[in-house]
Fold this sequence. Notes:
Order of helices and strands of chain A: EEEHEEHEHHHEHEHEEHHHH
Largest sheet of chain A: 6 strands, mixed
Oligomer: heterodimer
Number of domains of chain A: 1
Largest interface: A-B, 44 and 32 residues
Number of helices of chain A: 11
Number of strands of chain B: 2
Shape of chain A: globular
CATH topology of chain A: Rossmann fold
Number of helices of chain B: 9
Strand order of the largest sheet of chain A: 6-7-8-3-9-10
Number of strands of chain A: 10
CATH architecture of chain A: 3-Layer(aba) Sandwich
Helix content of chain A: 40-55%
Number of domains of chain B: 2
CATH class of chain A: Alpha Beta
Radius of gyration of chain A: 20 Å
Radius of gyration of chain B: 24 Å
Order of helices and strands of chain B: HHHHEEHHHHH
Strand order of the largest sheet of chain B: 1-2
Shape of chain B: globular
Amino acid sequence: MNAIEFKGVDFSYSEDGAFAIKNLNFSVKEGEFVAVLGHNGSGKSTLARLTDGLLSADKGEITVFGTPMTDKNLYTIRKQVGIVFQNPDNQTVAAIVEDDVAFGAENIGLPREEIGKRIDFALKAVGMEEFRHSTPTRLSGGQKQRIAIAGVLALKPKVMILDESTAMLDPRGRREIIDVVTRLNKEEGMTVVLITHFMEEALLADRAIVMNRGEIVMEGTPADIFERHEELITYNLALPRIGYICKQLQAGGMDVPDTLDYEKLAEEIAKCVS
Amino acid sequence: MLKDVAFGQFYPVDSFVHRLDPRLKILFLIAYITAIFLAKNFVGLGACLFVLVLIIIASHVPARKVLRSVRAVAFLIVFTALLNTLFYHGETVYWTWGIFSVTKEGLIFSAFLVIRLLLLVTCSSLLTYTTTPVALTDGIESLLTPLKWIRLPVHELALIMSIALRFIPILMDETERIMNAQKARGADFETGGLIKRVRAIIPILIPLLLSAFRRADDLGDAMDARCYMGSKNRTKYKKLKFGWRDLIAFLLGAALVTGVVLMRIYLVRAI
Lengths: 274, 271
């Protein structure tokens, strides 16, 4: 079954304005890890908001695990779809970590003991158990964003959307988030939609989608997408650094294949040099 | 508990008073203020003072800190006392000048007033010294719950208050960032007259307000995405618990009020 399905979806922010999303057909399978790439204004964040019902489509049909997006189904869908947003400070409700993680679980009226269990589970999943009684203001960006993930996990969603959740973090914080998300996907079978403009992050996905001006312009495995790096540049996206290293080595006459794996590249270089 | 609060006057130690249920502390303060104003003689006020000293000792808040809160209102207290002394009409007159007179009754009345105000300010500030803003909000929410009956949105008000508290440190950081940005562009906040200084604040306030609105928007989305539907069918993870400490404090408060009331009934004359 498809976790998320868009059929001919249109959306624009103003009555007469340009389409933010134009005749979009898109689906994500259960358990899949999809990266959505795109420059600013490509419509990738709009996609996240439409999936969770924070925005409603002008035209077309959106379904989440077969449930159509309607006012009546709104909270059924929101329980299944969790979104982690960009700014960690702006998505924390409470002044103490455990209270913030509890927020979603309290909203859907779970009994106290169950909320306690879910806090344990969610904080463990993001490796933040020891900060349970801390105040989020004192944590690093990566830690705050892990708390935001825990807050979403406490609702036990089946899909997690990360809407540029790593954009404001330093490289270390970014790695922390990507590690957590990859583990959730591999070990818990969580369906993940990773929206980003950092190409490196898309490497771990099963499938990558490139959006431009509200449309899907490229689709394939991350390796496929990177292979078409000249096309990427026309959408204002750059290859991950390792991709350029490969290209430069090839241009310099070294016989290395295109790869996104640093260790593999090192081996290939070693072969060429010896 | 140490890490809960980064601002305000909360004094982060672990003590008997810190561990009391916030609801009880709020109710105790109300009872205490009632007792102060019901006490008609020095014995009654003495009892109030004795209880206050007990609380201060049990709270582990240094006396220096406690006195600081008194200093803030010292002028007001002195001024009130002076007016009352000069204008009170009594029988035993010590000194008069025009409409002013100092009488024995006036002096006693002023002394009562000063003691009452001192006790009031000290006890109120002890509440904020020993209770985190979060706990205080929880306590107020819980105490106001019966007002849901008259359709007062108690949960929403408490949530607004706790979110406001949470964003204070974030907005303070933001203010500093904006000030530094403006300083880097040559803005001057330190010199000039009042008007010039107030004007210099405008380029700080506008970006700060804009950012606050943007944050509010983001937070609204994040709350929606986490299934926030208002207080309907909502459960609460943290329950305030009434423990043995609370029982002791409750008995102490009840004894004080009862004692003062009994004294008021049976000892008619001020000693």
